[in-house]
Design brief:
- The complex is a heterodimer of chains A (about 250) and B (about 775).
- Chain A is of the alpha/beta class and about 250 residues long.
- Helix content of chain A is about 40%, strand content about 25%.
- Chain A has a single domain (about 5-250), classed as Rossmann fold.
- Chain A has 9 helices and 10 strands.
- Chain B has 4 domains: about 1-45 and about 260-395, no CATH class; about 50-255, no CATH class; about 405-455 and about 645-783, no CATH class; about 460-640, no CATH class.
- In chain B, the strands form 2 sheets. In chain B, strands 1, 2, 3, 4, 5, 6, 7, 8, 9, 10 and 11 form an 11-stranded mixed β-sheet that branches. Chain B has a 6-stranded mixed beta barrel with strand order 13-14-19-16-18-17.
- The chains are: A alpha/beta (about 250), B alpha+beta (about 775).
- The interface between A and B is large, with 41 and 37 residues.
Amino acid sequence: MANIITTKKLCKTFSNGGVQQHVLRNIDLEIREGDFTVIMGASGAGKSTLLYALSGMDKPSLGEILFDGEEITKMTTDQLALFRRKNCGFVFQQTYLVDSMSIMDNVLSAGLLVNNDKKEVVAKAKKVLTSVDINEELWNKFPSQVSGGEAQRAGIARALVNTPRMVFADEPTGALNSKTGKDVLDALTKFNENGQSIVMVTHDITSARRGSRILYVKDGEIAGELNLGKYVSGDRERHMMLRDFLGGMGW
Amino acid sequence: MNKILLLTGAHWRKNKGTSIGLVLLMILASMMICISLLLFTDAYPTASRESDRLNSGDGCCRLTGDIDAIDDAFINDVFGNDSDDVYYYRTLYNMGSVPFGTGSLIISCQFGGADMWERPIGRTEIVTEDTSITSDYIYLPYQFYTSGGFNTGDTFDFEYHGTKLSLKVRGFLTTGYFGCNNSGVFEFVVDDDTLSRLRDLSGADATAVVVIYDLKDGVRPGKFMIKASNRIAEVNSSVVVDGYSLRDDAIMNRTFMSLIIAVSIMVVTVVILTVILLMLTNSITNYTRENMKTLGALKAIGYTSSDIKRSILALFVILSVIGSALGVAAAYSLIPLFARFAVGQMGIPYTPSFSIISVCCAVFAVLFFTVIVTLISIRKIRNIEPIVALRDGIESHNFRKNHFRLDKGSRGLNRSLALKTMMFNKKQNIITFFVTGLVIFLCVVSLLMYENFDRDPKLEVLTWDICGGMLTTDDETADEIMSFLSDRSDAANERSFRTAGIYYKDEDSLNAYVYEDLSKINNQHVCYKGRMPQYDNEIAIGGRFAKAYGYKVGEEIEMNCGGKSFSYLITGLLQITNNGGNIVFMTGEASEHIISWDGVPVQIAFDCADSAASDVIIEALQSEFGDSLYSTTNFYEAIEGSLVTFRSLSKLMLIMVCSISAAVILLVLFLLIKALIYNKRRDYGIYKALGYTSRDLILQTAISFMPSIILASIVFSVVSYFAANPYMNIAMGSFGIIEADFDIPVVGVVIIGCCTVVLSFLFAVFEARKIRKIEAYDMLVGE
């Protein structure tokens, strides 16, 4: 599979009261198309910072990020916005649906950004919402009127409505119980099986098991990598491999 | 107390932008209140104060006609019994035209010498003078300096009994009765040589006697004047009386324009205050909402609701004290500008004095309202649970209607999202709608004033007749002049008329305009109801007067003058600003029932093509009838002079209203957009994460305010177009205008509407640029 994202000497430094904090240190990384890449690490290791840098949401302090061969680190804020709308989908821990819009409108607000054909986008939105088990009766409800799991799945639908080159998921199950968390992971897995590239940050081993490739971030560096291959439900050996890998990383 | 101030300081630091916006609104509010109050309590009473200072008594009257017989015994007989003090003097009186501003004024003129400075009551004093000018000089009423464009050393050219005179302005004078064009009389003081020359031209040492009297306690000036007038008619029917009471005539006429200015500014103030109060309410409510999380945190760590309330109240009290103090300072720096128009046209020197009442009222009004609004807005704090506040007051269920669904309709995405934002911001948009509407109404009213008083003056409202030229002559020559004019091809519609003071019962005095043929008056609009009188038993009366005494067309009214009375049939109602609307029209035949015209000059008006034609005709008249002409007036020039104050006022109003309107719209949008961006910052972060550019979001935000602004512009432009005239009629009703139909240029209204929309949009875009600072990443990690 071809690389979709490549980073070269990626660094991110925060300055707080004159104190420099190096969150990412010289990261050289390649993300492959079609992979379900999982980024793991302890709290404060820099995994979310890495995710947002890869997605063009945050700018690195140094280094390069090439997305499909195009360097995004030199883009302006508005160019990055156009880049994101065309190439990226986002799933956040807190769902971040717009409260004042219905579930359907939340999905369409992303879809209509890329495609002006309203009929086509509405049809796509309905299809994606149905595929994440959000039924028609919920489409015109507001985020505050649906459960956390339903809202998160609506967030996935919003991320996928434009069929982005890459979906970035930041702890998508972090705020959910195990049942609804599983539903969300199932949805992501299903889309990955259909060829959708995903980069997901998690510190949950159950969620991480869904990934085809595990990257472990420690002190701002990629400390280790594990290739698990395609997810198969109930694959015990896969679970053991992951557990051993994480154990080796000091998890 | 320390902890409260600590919290207050924290509130200030966290809300500097909103606080500064509120302070600006408070400055505007207190400034407008203070200016209005200063105009009413300090500037407007200047005329009264000055009259008292000059010991002006209670009234005065000018006696013309057979004045040779007037002596101490005559004065004592007529005025002695009811007066504590009486003073009379002889003067040269002439109805004439004098230069004023860019034109001239047709006005009664009294000329006297140095003895004018010696009067014990009704004093005339020098305001300023240039003593280096020692001959051929004149002292002009101070209004010639404030509104007439004259300075000491200037040349004052005028015409006296057909002879042109040119004098140096030595100084300016102040006087209680004869210093303002609205009073209808000017008093001039000239050097002895000039006075002799004027006497020679008049053919007499004096042509009028002026009596100034101070009445005994309990004697009403109006009634006394009627009594004195009747007594004079009994003693010597050849003496013609023109009376003025100090309060009801001299001061009222003098302050007529000031009152219009003060009322206009007060109306603007009320509208602006309404807007500001709306904004204060909205801003303080928003303040509480924006700080919900902080309030929750404070409660969580043990601050009581009362502590928090007191700290917020303290902040707004401090802001309102600072704002209103700055507003008062701004008012005092601007009051000379307003006083220039309000007091300048009175012809009185004025220096603003420190009015503790105005200052306290301005500060107290702003403080009081701020405290009330703050107390109402912060009362919810008591019910806020810390945990709810920490969640920004978000409730778990919200069953709002999903307006402007994205899957329906054919609107573009940005427009749909803008409309959604508009619905999210419903309350603020309603405020914007009304603020914009009020501002447009004010602008349209000021446009009306500019259009009708300056750009294309509506003369039929400002004067009872419109002509090309006018002259005053004696009874004997009038017919010859009429015949002379009718033979000329460049003059038309010549008509003669006279004026006299008559009385309604013993209640009120009126000015009678007596024409041989009232159908010749060009300004037939002056009779707004019924018709002009045609027969000897008919009269048309001022609409304001009719309203005051409950008369209608078709009823009879008894008028009297010089001891005679007659019952007239009211055929029409008039609207004229002269004499506060106390005006009657009648024919010459009708006047003879009560008025004796012996020795009263005749005035003749004629029409002509333009100002140049008027000059040619007047020149011809002067060469033909020079000695018999008391005065001649080029109406085109005269009206320019009369319009000076109106022009200045309407320009001032237009500039002031447009500037304040723009400032109000900018401030309102500043506060609303600031609050909107704060409230929707999370949504903006989400949109940015999804790929919306700052430009998309800025436009969405700006566009979200446009429907209410556009709607208000359309609705209120139409409403203002139709409501401005009724509003002006109400506002000017007390000055005699009842049913004026002022022109309102549609193009001007459209320009006001369009400028409001464009200005609002540009500023909304400018203000919404703050969205650029919202970073999706910061919002996401910050949450």
